[in-house]
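User: Predict the complex.
Assistant: Input components as received:
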Amino acid sequence: MISSLGRSALSAYITISEILALLTGVMGNISINILRIRRPVIQVLLRQIFFTGNEAFKVIFLISMAVGIAIISQMSNVADAGRGSLIGKVFVWVVIREVAPLITALVVIARSGSAIAIEMGQMKLEGEIEYLEALGIPGEQYLLMPRVLGAGIALLVLNVYFNLIAISSGLIVSWLAWQIPLAHIKQGLISVLNLKEVIISSAKSLLFGIVIAAVGCNAGLRVGDSITEIPQAGTRSVINSLVIVFVADVFISFTFLF
Amino acid sequence: MICFSEILAEGIDSRLDFTLPLGNSAAIMTSRQSENDAFIRLILGFLAPDEGSFCIGADQPAFLKDSEIALLRRKTGAIYQDGGLISNLNLWENLTLQLAFEAVVPNKEIEQLAMAALSKAGYSGSYTASVSRLTLFQRRQVAFARAFLVKPDLMVYQSTFEGVSRAEQTQLSTLAWDYHRGGEITSIFLTSYPESLRGMDFDFTYYAGGMSQP
């Protein structure tokens, strides 16, 4: 039992160390190359933003609409028509602070995190990372940096969309179904929504995107010689990302609570 | 010059010992495919010798800094057995990737150079074909074209003339040989199937992995 716990702790420590090392390398690369990013790297970056952001948009659209409506339905039990401002505040506290960064992260973990892990794993298995480096192209610069940066940017944008759609759909439904005056909700929103809230929400999304891609890359790069390790890398990427994202979310929320 | 001195490394157990003057061609006959893999990795600096040393000029590739090894690799054309193409890029992206990354040639010029290189390699298919659609022969043609584009000082061929038809083998070996003769290039041919190098007149031939000399 104790040895099993020890093994798990050691494995977690190694994984986190590897991810941190990967992130340090990527961040170092960004700081060195940010002013002279090569054209092929920009192409990979744009492709990553497209696949992570644009292709997840439909799912995010539906989920954010559902979340907005669900929150407004629950809140209508608590707040009557005269207390619409409370609904606005709850939107900021619940949706902008917590739900939007977390749900967009979950969608990206399921879609892109595992895809990145599988793609990297496939490339590693086929020796393509070495082929790339044989051309004098550093894998860290061409493969890792644009994926990590692209996922971060995409998640940041998805978070903005999520907030806008969830709040809009909530407002519309509250007005149509319960005739809560929009002005009241708007008043509540504005009273608690400040730059700090927006920055925390955006920073969370950016961080989650970066972490999800780094975890995916790391899982893929750990693939050895067997093809059966590729789906395992996908699964590992999802599980590790979930744990890290939730822990990071709690940590950030607590940090900014006080 | 390129020197192998008493090399022992993972996958190489032949203690190969020779010096190849620049501009010459050499065939290294190995006993198995995995030894070819190990040799090409050694030459490109992915594999460090356990014993002995390997050098290109004054450099030992496995011990160079990242920026130095990247520079050395850009001066080396590697024709891998499977072509060494990246599967999530199409043919054209594979072909132009290295030049585009180096960013020393304008895009328009890269386009013209790439088309000329493909034509020189004898490739006549679609320029935007995905790698999975290419035959082994076509992949190697693209690898040749990609190498031509960077005007390498050293060409390394890993079992390049194996696994294709006789006519394709002749076409590829003619391509390699003409390219070697046409410039100040050092060429190393790795194979575990000596028959595939028949008709090629190397400056030096070495036998590794305990393979007996015919």
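Chain A has one domain: 2-257.
Let me know if you want any component modeled separately.
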